[in-house]
Design brief:
The chain is about 20% helix and about 35% strand. It has helices at about 30-35, 80-85, 90-95, 115-125; strands at about 5-10, 15, 25-30, 40-45, 50, 55-60, 65-70, 75-80, 100-105. The strands form 2 sheets. It has a 6-stranded antiparallel beta sheet. It has a 3-stranded antiparallel beta sheet with strand order 4-6-7. The longest helix is centred in the last third of the chain and has 11 residues, at about 115-125. InterPro entries: 2-oxoA_DH_lipoyl-BS, Biotin_lipoyl, GCV_H, GCV_H/Fam206, GCV_H_sub, Single_hybrid_motif. The glycine cleavage system is composed of four proteins: P, T, L and H.
């Protein structure tokens, strides 16, 4: 499985971009999307909400299960991807692209986030 090198990854299978003007984009990894099966519903944090790294901030429901969504960063939610709310299948179709979930204003990314190689090793160990 391919993990984009320009993203950072959490051990909970979320990704985030390097901040641009203090804002990072968050989504779930392709590995997570594949493991979930067909995503049919997403509950995302509301704009203006503060999320904390490692804490539950929403939920993803698939035809297989309901899973908690964990924030990979701490900060204020500044945007949610309405396209994913309207069409949750985007999470499966383009997890690292149009299937992004929300954007957060951050001070910095947590040091414990993994690069693509580290996340690949984590996923390999889980398989």
């Amino acid at each position: 499985m391919n993990f984009p090198a320009d993203l950072r990854y959490s051990q909970d299978h979320e990704w985030c971009t390097e901040p641009a003007d203090g804002v990072t984009t968050v989504g779930v990894t392709g590995y997570a999307a594949e493991s979930l099966g067909d995503v049919v519903f997403v509950q995302l944090p509301e704009v203006g909400t503060t999320v904390a790294a490692g804490e539950v901030c929403g939920e993803i429901e698939s035809t297989k299960s309901v899973s908690d969504l964990y924030a990979p960063v701490t900060g204020e939610v500044v945007e949610v991807n309405q396209a994913v709310v309207d069409d949750p299948a985007l999470v499966n179709a383009e997890p690292h692209g149009r299937g992004w979930l929300f954007r957060v204003r951050v001070e910095a990314l947590p040091a414990e986030l993994l690069d693509a190689a580290g996340y690949g090793a984590l996923v390999g160990a889980e398989a």
